[in-house]
Amino acid sequence: MSTEFLLEARQVTKHYGKFVALGGVDLRVRRNTVHSVIGPNGAGKTTLFHMLTGTLGVTGGSIAFNGQDVTREPGHVRVRKGMARSFQVTSLFPTLTVRENLRLAAQGVNARRAFNLWRSPQGHWSCAEMVDRVIERLGLRNQERTAAGSLSHGQQRRLEVGMALAAEPKAIFLDEPTSGMGIDDLDDMKTLIADLGRDYTVVLIEHNMGIVMDISHTVTVMQQGRVLVEGTPQSVRDDERVRTAYLGSMITGGRK
Amino acid sequence: MRRNIDIAVALGIVVALPLLLSSGSLASEVLIYALAVLGCNLLLGYTGLLSFGQGIFFGLGSYTFGLVLTRTGLPMPLALVASIILGGLAAGLVGIVSIRQKGTYFVMLTLAFAQMFYFLAYSVPSLTGGDNGLLNIPRPPLSAFGVVLWDNTTAWQFYAMVAVIFLLVFVALHRVTTSIFGRTLLAIRDNEVRASAVGYNVPRFKLLAFVLSGAVTALAGALNAMMVGVAPLANAEFHVSEMILVMTVIGGAGNLAASLIGALFYVLAADWLSTLWPRWLMLLGVLLVIISLGMQRGLWGLIEDGFLALTARFKRTGEIRVEEKQV
Amino acid sequence: MSVYLLQTVNGIGIGMLYFLLAVGLSIVFGLLRFVNFAHGVFYLLGAYFCFEAVRQGMSFWAALLIVPLFVAAVGWVAEKTLLRHVYAKPHEFHILITVGVALIIQELVIVQWGPLGDSVAVPSGLEGVVMWGDFIYPKYRLFVIAVTGGLAVLLWWVLEGTRLGSAVRAGSESPEMVSLLGINVFRLFSLVFALGAATAAIAGVLAAPIRGVEPFMGIEALAVAFVVVVVGGLGSFTGALVGGILIGVVQSVMSTLWPEGARLMIYVAMAAVLLLRPNGLLGKRG
Fold first, then answer.
1. Domain B2-279, CATH
2. Complex-level ipTM
């Protein structure tokens, strides 16, 4: 097993009855890079994420993470192995505070210890250090005692990313982290993700080409459940097939 | 501190009941049902699981207690322990099959299993007395090594024992619900998918909550059998499951002290209204509808809101932020 | 005539009634994502309204036509005034509000007709038995099988062959899409809910001469409907049919082998199916 690639997915397929959502996808993600997955709607990007993180099971193919085969492992086990994700549609614990959301995410890595019926999550058990670190990084210090459901959309999207961070993962899977964000929040998020790329391996689904082209090391383009093209942002942007897939108009962003 | 209010309220009510009620058995009934409601609340208010099957464990607790006391020579405390253990085991069995299913499917299954248990109890009269139930269940004094520690003959003496047991369970459950485990349950109630995505084995957590719930509910059933002297088939009827749920919702899901309020409300209403109007259950139905439409936090929610409104009046300066809590 | 043949035919008869009970529940769930815990009282109302109608001198045939419409109206009103307000809330409240409604209706039934049960006479013309050589069987029960079979065909035709049916099936996949297509989704919901109530009521009317009426029959009906739906698979029309007949036959055959355990075996059968096929025999994931 190669150690250059943190994540290796081979011929991953997903069928829903007769509908083929993924028709054999290969994906290899190098350590400590930002690897973006882009493609038109319906390409299967989120489905691929579900396969990689274990949210849903594969119909066929294999997934290896950090040298281990995780294909049959349920999502909650993969967290322990070092995978963490955010969701395209905000999925937080709405009635719980920001701090509590993050504590749960931090504790989740060691989920077995959460079967403690006796101790309350204070002091040593509060994961306070990790929670504080993530809150600082997200810039949510003023909102730490607010219920997650009461945050603004932009703050919620940041917290989504934070939930993945709090697990101190090896790989972070971000599913359209900027979806629905306004211009002000966008720049903050872009800086955050670029920042993350320095410390973690980031696998990113994004529609915002400005972010994808500027911060990715590798870009995989998907279409209709398969990989169309893979390469550096530059090569992907210039590729004819990608232009056709996007009907020529979508990849215009980026400062390069 | 917020967390100690619950215990203070429970203690307060337990002490106040003998002063307010004239019947010891009515007071015991309140606490016994409150135990069952605590079990149901653990599932509904903390884990987000709506169970129509609590009657299984209540009935099973009654039968186990009756059988152990009348057919084995084991002392009463052990009979109680046996009920608790069997209740937990039964909950484990039902849970393993039901928890695999999502949302409403789970609810339907618990109801079907409740009916199953009822017919099971009906069809093995050698164990359960069938239609007649188990009769002549004694109420032995609490004794150890031959020394009588506490006589249970009068209703109020029995109440004292029930009260102690209740408070012990209440404090224990309070500990559990504020523990790391309990907080994880709350997360699961809020968003199961997220809980799984951050690393928690959700079915296992639900199962443990279910087992705890079954154990506590069985204890309630056992105490009920001891109080009434009978383990009737009726304890396994759908009606029991339904009423336990109703008490939980009326009291307010998600708060332990609310469980006591719900049981108190129901038992007193039943006692008072049933003589006035035999069809008083209709009002309960109306109350359920009202709560579903607008009063989701139940009576406890009303009390909390009322309290906040009162204190707001005394604090004319400054703002009081009322937290909008969605159950 | 062999006892087992007799019980199998009985089982099919009961099973068809169970199908009728379950199919309304299943369709309502498919579209509204709502498990109606008041479904049992629609069955109850069907039986009692029939009882009362017959007692007042109406013919059973008229009752069979009118009572379900009446109960459908009750369902329509309940959906519009009460249930509609909880769709946006967590599913616990869908269940709880219908439990509340069920409790209210059950108590009203007791207020009106008393807590004890009663019987309903088999309609004239259907009394007695049919004799085909060795095969002797009560006429009324054959009638029930025939009617429920016809209703099954009718329902199938409505679901698969009409625009209403298409709207229901489409709406089960995506209510948003259906409303974008210009169909008044709220009216559709009310209609389907009323339809569910009507099918339960018909089952109640048909069952009354066999089982009599009794205020708590709604609970057992609800539980059986759940079992059939779980066995057959939630959201599946054929599942409700297969599940209903299977459960009916199990109950009938068991009533010869182990009478006290006949009812129990329904639930044991359910548990067995669940262990082997968690989605039911014909279930599609809803």
1. 1.10.3470
2. 0.89
